[in-house]
Sequence to fold (569 residues):
Amino acid sequence: MRNLEKLKLSIYYALIIILFVKCANIKSPSGGPPDTIPPRVVESYPTDRTLNFKDNKISIYFSEWVERGSVMQNIAISPPIEYSLKWNGKKLDIKFLEVLKPNTTYSFMLGTDYTDTKSNKPDSAFGITFSTGSVIDSGTISGRIIGKDAASTYIYGYRIDNKNPDTLNYEEAKAEYSTQVGNNGQFTLRALPDGLYRIIAVKTNFRDNLFHPAQDQFGTTTSDVQIIEGHSFPQTIKINKYPNLFKADIVKIIQLDSNLLNIEFTKQIASQSFSIEQFQILDTITNNNIPIQAVWLDSLISNKLSVLTSTGFIVNRPYKFQIMDSTLKDIYDISLFGIEKEFYAKGGEFKFVPQLISAPFQDSTRNIGFESEYTFIFNYPFQIDSNSNAIELIQFPDSSKVRITIEQLSLNILQVKPLALIAADTWYRYYLNVKELQGLYSRKFQDTIVRLSFKTDDWRPNPTISGKITKAIPCPNVFVILKDSKDEEARVTKADSLGNWQIDYVRPDTYTIEVFCDENGNGKYDYGLAKPYRYSELFENYEQKIEVKPRWNIEKINITFPTHFQFIK
Fold:
């Protein structure tokens, strides 16, 4: 009898466990065609635009079972408020852990990155607005993120007409309003009162309404955005990796020769010439300066700096390298002044040899474009005689010499350019006699002749595209970008002072045009900064497709830039 009771209890517990497992493992029925139906919200409490809301929770009901973790990561409530979540089947309750502010409009948004149990994502975001008072703030700021990285970007809004915007710290102060960008790049901030707003776009793995400069991509608008009677101008924003604005440091110092150092920094430096007075090497025992003869980078933009001294270092003696000039900066315009690092001189046999370390392309490369400036980089400074035959360019099949100009961009970098456009679909060869270079301070280069053959692309069928920019606002530098069918920047040119522009030898493809105003004259688009805050440069995308066909020039692409704008800076 006792064994029978034990058996009944065992069966009872087994049934309980089976029932529990079935309830916990939420899945759609197996069999049939694959489930491709996207999930959606079918009902909410409160309904959209509810007034005088007094409850402490809201609820949403899904059309099917969803991955709960992904839903939790896609909720945004503006203004921000602490909350907890409770599930009951397909229903989600969001309970507020703080008292709602009186006479305030709240916006609840569920983004598009959550999925159902079959990994289907919703077609669009879901949102409701409700007010604790008798009025719904109906202002909106809408726009679009331009580029392939638009999905999963967040838009943060900060009202600034009631505060000093210079006090905003986007790393510490949570955004008052936020929304997630849809898969099509479109966004809308809702339930905003009339006022002036600062808008930033952040592509982040964190969902805390904060900006993390070390990890996030960033972009902002060309001006602050004014909402008047609920309306504002549409915004377009480009995002990019946020620049490293931390002060650089020295990673290591390597001794290459008895009087030659290579110094590696955490950030890149952009300079074609240095003054030896910008640097100092100190013997920390005698406190004497070690005379410096030359300083150079190992490429046009690099984080590696070489320093040549007049005398050799004493083995095992400690030295200190220092940067003494505040005008020396990294590529993000951050001063390098004050950076220093100690090192010990080493002895032994050095094997450093002055030589070529970088050529513009590999030998026997094909499809070289008509842009014909070629750069040769060496690991040691040199001088070259204007009448030297150190570099020659030969055209085949007749082995005729091509007239070239040779320019020394820095102590260790040569740039070679043909005086006339080279021929299409033709083989050429560079001859570089390294021995002809005169190394500084009687240092000999490696006795080498470099032969660099290449074949040019056949650009003859490629047509010209041209047009005119009519500037609706003053802009000193207007650039035109051709974006190809992969949404990549294919060609860039600068319009002249009258707005005329022309791009030759354009490969057949389907293009769109982007135009931007280079306000600071650095030749590239600037996405803005968070701290200190800087607006982005003005740009506009023109969605009309341009079909480029062989041997068919396209003229009179006339553009008004910008077509709409609102400047409040």
Q: What stands out?
A: The radius of gyration is 32 Å. Confidence is low (pLDDT under 50) at residues 15-26.
